[in-house]
Amino acid sequence: MAHSTVPAAGTASDGDDDGPPAVCHLPPVWERELPPPSLPIGVAVLAVLTAIIGILLFVSGLLYVANLYAGTAVPSSLVILHVGNVFGATLLAVLGTVVIILSSALWHQELWAFYLTVGFLFLGLVYLFFTDWITYLFVIVLVVFIYLIAVRHHFY
């Protein structure tokens, strides 16, 4: 197979091609294509449960503040968590917002959400262990912790 040469810019091709052939193109760079990670069913369930908890925290903070400032419009029987003051209710609403964002990131399998969730679960396990609450709740948190470690390769 004969190689064709391309004259250098600014030179005329007069038939004297003593130099090396010029290459016009290079082959495409090979890139490893990984299949997109699939969402494990346990992570989906955990994301939905986390979203429900976040919504409850957010709504309870808002209902407490609404009851405090508009008691006739929002009766105290609607308040889910009684936090004591406006600062606690605001903090509860902000925490609910953070938990909702965390659940969305879990659903989209973002790595930072995995680390944050595993960290929270680990802290919960340590708390339950050192307070002698080794009950069904401890076992459930431990199983979820081990499950998340097992499916860590699905996060990116």
Mean of residue pLDDT values: 84
Question: Which structural class do you get from the secondary structure elements?
Answer: mainly alpha
How would the global form be characterised?
elongated
**Total number of helices:** 4
| Tally of DSSP β-strands | 0
| Number of individual domains | 2
Poorly predicted parts: none
How far from one another are the termini?
46 Å
Gyration radius from CA atoms, angstroms: 30 Å
Strand content: under 5%
Let me know the largest β-sheet: none
Give helix and strand order, one letter per element, not per position: HHHH
The helix content, as a percent range, equals 55-70%
Topology:
Blueprint: H1 41-69, H2 86-107, H3 111-130, H4 136-150
Helix pairs in contact: 1-2, 2-3, 3-4
Question: Could you please describe the fold and organization of this structure?
Answer:
With 156 residues, this protein is mainly alpha-helical. The chain has two domains: 40-108, no CATH class; 109-156. 55% of the residues lie in helices and 0% in strands. Helix 1 packs antiparallel against helix 2, helix 2 packs across helix 3 (111-130) and helix 3 (111-130) runs antiparallel to helix 4 (136-150). The chain is elongated. The mean pLDDT is 84.
Structure at a glance:
This protein has four helices and no strands. With 156 residues, it is mainly alpha-helical.
Which features does this protein show?
156 residues, mainly alpha, 55% helix, 0% strand
